[in-house]
Specification:
This protein has about 120 residues and is an all-alpha fold. It contains 4 helices and no strands.
């Protein structure tokens, strides 16, 4: 499957998906964002074609790309509610040791979890 946007890039009609560096976007007079994007670090349109292809390949409802495995793991854990159950492979203790030492802010998302 070739990764191409289902709609061509509007400004130059390019076939390959455009790459959007981190930027802010133009606002209307009422300070709204007419094209729905406000800051590309949170909502970068560069990822949308790849997410659409992954979603189609996996038969899912939505796909998300992350800049790192830690970002993906934190997003999953932050989506959990109290009382939810998860299964983590044997690397949990290594992961928590690494996360606590190297990424204390990210590790805070995992406080309150325990291995079984």
């Amino acid at each position: 499957m070739q990764m191409m946007s289902s709609t061509r890039e509007q400004q130059y009609d390019s076939i390959s998906p455009a790459i959007y560096p981190s930027t802010t976007y133009e606002r209307d007079a009422d300070l709204s964002y007419p094209k729905g994007k406000c800051y590309s670090r949170d909502d970068n349109p560069t990822c949308e074609p790849a997410e659409a292809v992954l979603c189609q390949l996996e038969g899912g409802g939505q796909a998300l790309l992350f800049s790192s495995g830690m970002a993906a793991a934190v997003a999953v854990f932050q989506s959990l509610r109290p009382g939810d159950t998860i299964i983590i492979p044997g690397t949990y203790n290594y992961f928590m040791t690494f996360a606590t030492k190297c990424h204390p802010v990210a590790a805070s998302a995992f406080r309150g979890f325990s291995s079984v």
